[in-house]
Structure formats: structure tokens, C-alpha cells
Amino acid sequence: MSPEPQQPHQPHDVYESHEAFVRLALHDDGDALGRLDRATWSTLHAVTPRARPPYTPFFHESSDPGDHLVAVAGDGRIVGYAKLGRPTPLASNAHVRQIQGLAVSDEARGRGVGRLLIRAAVAEARRRGALRLSLRVLGHNTPARRLYESEGFVVEGIQPREFLLDGEFVDDVLMGRSL
């Protein structure tokens, strides 16, 4: 009798909607995630310049598949991701995880995929032993701020005029929540 095939690790709490489900990324997701990242780039949320060819790999030494939760549509397409990492490598900060990126494809926006990813990030952070979850969001990204607030995140600090994007100064808003 052959062993059962290994299933990819799922976040501890499974979050699904009729539109998508969330799982940990696989190495083979790198190209799709890179395309999604480039397609969703905007100064509404990005502080780095738009990527230009030749593109660097999505996964690299400081960002591997285990750091990413991906939202997968019913047809198998990746329609979003959240990167979950540690804000610092310090032992004194090991109880904190941070959402270090979140993207949802244009066709999946407004369908609960972002909320699904946030809830999966909360569950995965808890599974990894975190007691707090934090994030940074640009001050002018009102839709993202409202979504985070509706999921229990509160503003914990504001760095005024932290970034200059498209000729405008933008605040960096620090948000967090207990787990």
C-alpha cells in the first residue's frame, strides 16, 4: 500500500469563501506571485519603484514560500497573497509577527479575498506562537486601513510625511492587534 500523498500545509484555521481558499505558498508559486505583484503595483501601497525587466525572483534568501499565504480561486489561479514575517530578528521581539505585504488581483477585489488573507495571517501568526500582529500601511490607502480596522487592527503610530510618492508626501501608519 502506498502512503497518502502529502497535502501542502494549511493555516491552522482554514479560511475559505465561495471565491477562494488560502494556503501556504509553494516554491512553484513564485512566477505567479511575481506576476501578481507587478500587476497590482501602485503608489497607493508601494514605496519602491515599479519593477522593470529582468525581474528578480519573487522568492529569495530573505523571503521564502513559508513566509507567504496565497489565496487561490476555484479555478486554481492565485488571486492574492499576504507575506507574514518577523519585524526584527531579535529574541525580545519573537512574539510578534508582521504582515509585510498584501496584494489582491484586480478581478478578485471586492470579493472578500483581502479579508480572507488577513484572517488566515492572524490564524497562522497564532499557530506560530505570536501574541501580536502588526503592519504598516500608507496613510492615503483608505480602503486598506478600513479593512484592517474592521479586522481588529488599531493605529499605534504615525510617521508623518515618511515617503515621497508621485511628488506628494505620505504618512506611514503603524497598526497592530493582540492575538
Relative strand content = 25-35%
> How much is the radius of gyration in Å?
16 Å
Number of separate strands:
7
**SS-based class:** alpha+beta
Please give the largest β-sheet: 7 strands, mixed
Overall geometric form: globular
H-E order: EHEEEHEHEE
* Number of H/I helices: 3
Percent of residues in helices: 10-25%
Low-confidence stretches: 1-15
Mean pLDDT: 91
Oligomer: single chain
Q: In whole angstroms, how far apart are the ends?
A: 42 Å
Main sheet strand line-up? 1-2-3-4-5-7-6
Describe the structure.
It contains three helices and seven strands, in the order βαβββαβαββ. 27% of the residues are buried. It has a seven-stranded mixed beta sheet with strand order 1-2-3-4-5-7-6, with helices on both faces. It has helices spanning 30-39, 113-127, 142-150, and strands at residues 20-24, 68-73, 78-85, 96-104, 132-138, 154-165, 168-178. The model is unreliable at 1-15 (pLDDT under 50). Helix content is 19%, strand content 32%. By secondary structure, it is an alpha+beta fold.
